Protein: DNA polymerase III subunit delta
Amino acid sequence: MLIFLYGQDTYRMREKLKELVEEYKKVHKNVLTLKSFEEENLNFDEIKNEAKISSIFQEKKLIIFKNVLSLLKNEPRFMGLSNDLQKSDDIVIFLEEKDFNGKNELVKFLMKNAKSQEFQLLNNDKLKNWVKKEFENYEVKIDSTALEKLINFVGNDLWQMSNEIRKLVNYKRGEKIKKEDVALLVKPKIESDIFATINSIAARNKKEALSLIHKHLEKGDNPLYLLSMINFQFRNLLIIKDLIQKYRSPYTLSKVTNLHPYIIKKSYSLAQKFTIQELKKIYQKIFQVDLAIKTGRVSPEAALDLFLAGI
Structure:
């Protein structure tokens, strides 16, 4: 039996593989009948032996190939061997997180002959339902506003989402999770990206800053939210720059402000790249752009471009 797991959602794909392996182990107790090939241990002769030799334990073997299609497509002998794998009684799983391009002959073969399952990134209601189900698995409830905030912060990166869910579950210990808990424990993914954008601005690299912002817009991120994040970061930089001139030490800053130590740590070195006059000028431009959007003089997308081009 051939099974082909592929797609961009690597978390759910790996979970599916784990499920298949566990099901196999329940029936087939001998671990010697399970073999896995990855990029670092890919050897055609060994693959050939596994495909040709029957198990001495009279059990079906489970053979797993992880992210090897880009290598195997350059191995002409494998196409012949793939037919043997298809006819075999063994279970052969191909998991591919990288090269599932339809131009790959091996991908074409698998799409035609294997039991295939594509794992697309979850969005909207599908993502919301997945997150709710994960909390239900822990027997923990989350209110609707907290759920929305968590999804806005993390997006559809299920590797990070699963970590944040465990963090929230452990923190609340069975109590209902609220939006304040999410705000306290979860760092928005977009926040790191906005720091990268501001770093580009500090380096006077407008082209890179524009490119980073447009990646967010292409993903469907709300331009007003992006602007609010930029406003939030520059406001913090202005506060910290002013306090640096008075107190110097980052340790002292954490004592005289209500800012989170993480924000101070990230902002301290970045604030050094601007003069206080530059930060005041940028903060004023953000105010002007925000006003232009709210009065309908310019679209939010165009306003972001004008802001970045004008600093």
